[in-house]
Amino acid sequence: MRGAVPPLPRNGAYGHQITAPVLFITTGAFIAPGETIVTKLTLGALAAATTVLTPIASSAQTEIEFWHAFTGRLGELVAAQVEQFNASQSEYSVTQAHKGNYSETLNAGIAAFRAGEQPEILMVFEVGTATMMGAQGAIKPVYEVMADAGAEFDQDAYIGSVKGYYTTPDGQMLSLPFNSSTPVLWVNRDRFEGAGLDPDMDLSTWQNVEMALDQLAEAGEECPLVTAWQSWIHLENFSAYHDVPFASQANGFGGTDTELMLNGEAQVAHISKMGEWAQEGKFIYTGRRNEGGANFRSGECALFTESSAGYAGIKAEAEFDFDVRPLPYWEGVGNAPQNTIIGGASLWVMEGHSDEEYKAVAAFLNFLSSSDVQAQWHQDTGYLPITTEAGEATRAAGFYDENPGTDVAVIQMTAKEPTENSKGLRLGNFDQIRGIIDEELEGVWAGDKTAQEALDSAKERGDALLRRFEQASR
Amino acid sequence: MEKRVTFKGWTLPILLIAPQVLISAIFFFYPAGQAVWQSLFIPDPFGLSMQYVGLGNFEYLLSDPFYRASFVTTAVFSTLVTLCSMILALFLAVLADRLIKGSGTYRTLLIWPYAVAPAVAGVLWLFMFNTRVGVVSWYLGQLGYDWNHVLNDAEAMGLVVVASSWGRISYNFLFFFAALQAVPKSVIEAAAIDGARFWRRFFTIVLPLLSPTTFFLLVVNIVYAFFETFGVIHTITSGGPQQATTILVYKVYSDGFVGQDLGSSAAQSVILLVVVGLLTVLQFKFIEKRVHY
Q1: Closest-CA distance of chain B to residue A423, Å
Q2: How high is the pLDDT of residue B2?
Q3: Per the CB < 8 Å rule, is B132 touching A131?
Q4: Computed from CA positions of residues B182, B187, B189, B192, in that sequence, does the dihedral angle turn out positive or negative?
Q5: Domains along chain A?
Q6: From residue B206, how far is each of A224, B106, B118, B231 by CA, in Å?
């Protein structure tokens, strides 16, 4: 399906390419005095250029805007999806625009809303979910958009653990999941063999991973384990996977009067272990985001806990044999393995547009969640398919057999029905709370703090932010 | 005797100052007033509702030990940046001033870094000191020093100070160089004839003559370190590790534009405004007395 990009722009654009130079010439012709020519010409050229660049909707077409946070390969894939949608019908036209990284895109959306110029569709990352949900009057829930437009919308078609993140307590979808991933364990098989370890050894539990780390370190490996997104993987997902709460009130789903519970026994034990590994040189800390990816892809590190969406990059760059394994769990702790939770973003529909425009939005969202588009997206990027059907289509096409391990994330997410602790997180000010957790964890890795001290302090500081969010959304 | 130029009537002087007053009002007083107003509320990000909290935002901030620590971090950071960039710039300016041949080339090269935007400068330095792939950290590793600014407070601070000072040296150099050129040659020559050596001439004659420039640069550089180093910090450390490089203005950004906590962010802006205002007043009151024009 992908690649069915229309070779020619639609009629509307052609009409304008002819008028634009005319406009340019007339602007230029009136100018007599020498000095002003430059500026006027530039202005004329600018005006001409912008009229050509701005997609022109013929009067019959409804035009909507879609703001996203993707660059590079992902940006190209999104642009292709939009073009494909525009070519597939003639009633609606979607314009996509890149607005910076996740935080910047959310800010752009908020600033635009304040100025009354919000786009119809805004991409918001998962930690911004509580902020968006609290913004009644700024957003229009997806289930409402679909119902008003009379579009066909089967909420049960979506994978539970993906959808769960973005639904109301009674299961109504507020935003459309777009790109969702979950953490997995990446293995450099060459490093294992180099250290005299069987690369096929069982790495499903942290107990086994610890044995492997001991041997890797003993064999003189400089980077046995590295991680990306430490809070997301080693606390948020860790809690869900072991079925222990990360925050009270069902991780915030129950209300804004929630408190962090990340300093529980299970989490403290895990972070404490990681701290020991850091001191012994078995776990290498490289930064708060996904800096560790460079170390793993260069072949330096043996094990890497990172999002399943790291697939595209690792596949493109790794010059060694690699494996994807499920995220490890501590045998005997909590109800592990439960299911892991997602990261990534969803699409929110903003308030303040016409019924016609919402119809266009509904059509576009339906197109995005169609099985073909989803399956292609899943295979191109390593993000999870958001519908069960798209996952099955991928399996039927033989993708998982050709690319072993690409289904690990899907299985890990869907093996069990999510519990209160593993449905996801819905905490206000969560971007900042993650920053606090990062700081505290750095204290543990540096050996300045014990895991208990660091997580207690993260709870105390995080709770203060949760109270502020509660106050702001009152 | 002082000469005074006087205007007849008020229209012309008012017209003449109007553009500046207008610009200050629109781009300074109005936003500053907004910040003061907003600091009294906890608004939701979308501007749909506001909770009046009086001085609650200030109370919340000042009771936060990390916010208080940020004052110390800012003081250390801005002192280091100001000293580093000014001393090095003065040193280079003195050297360039003594050049007879090719001083034009040196000047151009030394001014060059000023054209680099802070965020870009940050990325450049980050590349060199990247804990795994950085050139400098690799050489340090060869010398047996394990560079890790991701976890080490002092190294992180050192790196952001160096990166922030780097571009600033050019700016300071330009002013020092111009000021050095303006030092009358006859005075220097007279001192030389009296037998004063270079450094003695420098400290007793040149430096005092440079004092107006030095004072100006001191004020400007402190303001720079307070407000404009944001890009460097954002790209290199994002305020870490453990808030070791979170200066006040970075916290304003991260609370306001990452955390969407506009109330707290506004309160911080107000505090920052007061701090910088006070600093400037202090500088003019105490240091300017020692400046000879």
Answers
A1: 23
A2: 59
A3: no
A4: negative
A5: 15-180+343-396 (3.40.190.10), 183-340+415-473 (3.40.190.10)
A6: 59, 21, 32, 35
